[in-house]
Amino acid sequence: MTGARAFARREWGSLYGAVRTALAAKRWRAVPMALTAVCLTALCQLVQNQSWGYGPVHGLGSVRAEDPLWLALLRTPLSLFVPALDLPVWGALAQVLVVFGIAEICMGRRRTLVVAYLATLAGTTYARLGIWLGPDSPLGLPGSDARVVDTGPSAAVVGLAVYVCFRHRAWLTMNLVIVAMVVEVFVKSNLAGKEHLAAIVAVLLVCAVSSLSSRFSATSSGASGTSSGASGTSSGTSGTSSGTSEASGSALAHRRSGASGGGVESGVPPIRS
Predict the structure, then answer these.
(1) 3-state helix, strand, coil in the chain (%, to 5)
(2) What is this structure's pTM?
(3) Contact at 8 Å (CB) between 65 and 150?
């Protein structure tokens, strides 16, 4: 039991502490963006299930690989909050609330939005690339997927989960998320599953760049500190040398003064006539 507690503390301690502190201090005010995303997703689900609402919602938020790229990019921000019609909306709402909320607390609103949209764009871009590669390629997609409506927050949720685990060093959890998405593709090889993998790849690249940047900054800071220390040592040595030179000059002047005054201080008796 002690080993399990130690593992849980090592794996989720930092993450749990950050979330608990924020919720204890601000309660629901700690996650305004996540709550807004949940309400927007629920609203899109409600409207698109109306006879009058399906057209406007999908005209503004549905993305297909066959659409022009500029139109897909314009629709991508809202497409993140349009849940898929063939999946239960409660699952999407729970994912958005939990994952977006944790990410908002741990990373801030701006970074959460950037990672979420990066993951979504990675999936959208992969869909076009996969159709171009064709079904014969291991990374390709059949041409019929060009007409599949590509909406929902799942790619953003997966990308945020991986990035939050990376930031808080929850390595096992991050690997479990990745393995689960890989298994999903093997069990049911469809557009959504492969887009999840594309989102993971994009976020892992961001993690790698962030890690390399941190290491470079640490190395530069260490080199700067070493250089400052060497400069201080050199200044100290210079000061010591200067002090020694001044002391030698004073001693020499003192001796000359003694010689010109009759040699009393020099210890040489004066010459008597």
Answers:
(1) 80, 0, 20
(2) 0.78
(3) yes
